[in-house]
Amino acid sequence: MHKPKYHLFICSSSRINGQQMGACHTKKSVDIVQSFIEEIEERELTGDVMITNCGCFGICTTGPVVLVYPEGIWYGEVSANDVAEIVEAHLENGKIVERLQII
Question: Which has more confidence, 25 or 67?
Fold first, then answer.
């Protein structure tokens, strides 16, 4: 298995039973996951970036939340409009998008 350079965990409010419900889901987190998939494919970063949609991080008031590893950078209140900026700044150029970072 090829180890990716980055691993993104995106809250889509997935529940154990497969249902999606909750704060991030109501804020269109599924669209954000899809936007990341499309942006990463478009920029030919598929081998370098793994995307995992996941359940609640427990900080719903700051959602939708995107967690970027290996650095452990948390982004909050992410929208589909922020995806290209995160991919270009963080994943391609190694610069944190400070306006979205949860500290």
Answer: 67
Lowest mean pLDDT among 11-15, 29-33, 58-62, 94-98: 11-15
Instruction: With beta carbons less than 8 A apart as the criterion, state whether 62 and 77 touch.
Output: yes
CA–CA distance, 19 with 36 (Å, rounded to integer):
21
Nearest Cα residue to 47 out of 93, 1, 90: 1
* Separation between Cα atoms, residue 84 and residue 37, nearest integer Å: 11
**CA nearest to 23, candidates 55, 64, 53, 76:** 64
State the pTM of this model: 0.91
The CA–CA distances, whole Å, from 27 to 5, 20, 75, 85, 93 equal 28, 12, 15, 19, 28
| Domains of the chain with CATH codes | 6-78 (3.40.30.10)
- Extract the runs of DSSP E, i.e. beta strands, from the chain: 6-11, 49-54, 66-69, 73-75
Residue-level pLDDT at 1: 59
